Amino acid sequence: MSLAYKRQGEGERDRQRGDELEKNVVKLMRSILQCMLGQVNRVESFKKSLRKEHSLHAKYNISTCGPVVGDHNWGHLQIDATSLFLLVLAQLTSAGLRIVFTLDEVAFIQNLIFYIETAYR
Q1: H-only helix segments in 1-121
Q2: Residue of higher predicted confidence among 15 and 94
Q3: What is the pTM assigned to this prediction?
C-alpha cells in the first residue's frame, strides 16, 4: 500500500502517508523477528532432534515477546505461520524495505528456512 501511495500519490501528503506505512510495516516485521529470535535455542534444538517439543511458538506476549502458550500445550510446528512470515519478509525485502539488519538475523532466517523444509520431507 505504501508503494501505491508513493507511485500514484498526488502530493506531499500521500508521500508522507506512504513513508509512515513503510515505517509501521518495518516496525511490525522487526517486532515479530525479535520475538522469534527469542526462540533461537528452540530452532537449534529442532535442527538436531526434529521433535515437535522444540517447535516454535506463533503467539507472543506483546510486552515481553515471550510465548503465550506453554511448551506442552502447543504441539505443532507452526509451519504455516513461519512460512507466511518468510514469504512476507521476502516480498518486502524485494520491494526495497530493509527489515533484516544483522548477520545473526540472516543466520536465524536461514535456520527458519531449514525449519520449514522439514514439513516437506
Answers
A1: 2-8, 12-37, 40-49, 79-94, 103-117
A2: 94
A3: 0.83
Cell numbers found for residue 16:
508522507
Q: Which residues contact 36 (CB under 8 A, 6 or more apart)?
A: 56, 85, 108, 112
- Which residues, other chains included, contact 18 with Cβ-Cβ below 8 Å and sequence gap of 6+? 1, 2, 3, 4, 5, 6, 9
What is the CB-side half-sphere exposure of residue 74 using CA atoms within 13 A? Answer: 19
∠ at Cα 97 (92, 107), nearest 5°? 75
- Return the higher-pLDDT residue of 23 and 56: 23
**According to the model, what pLDDT value does residue 43 have?**
85
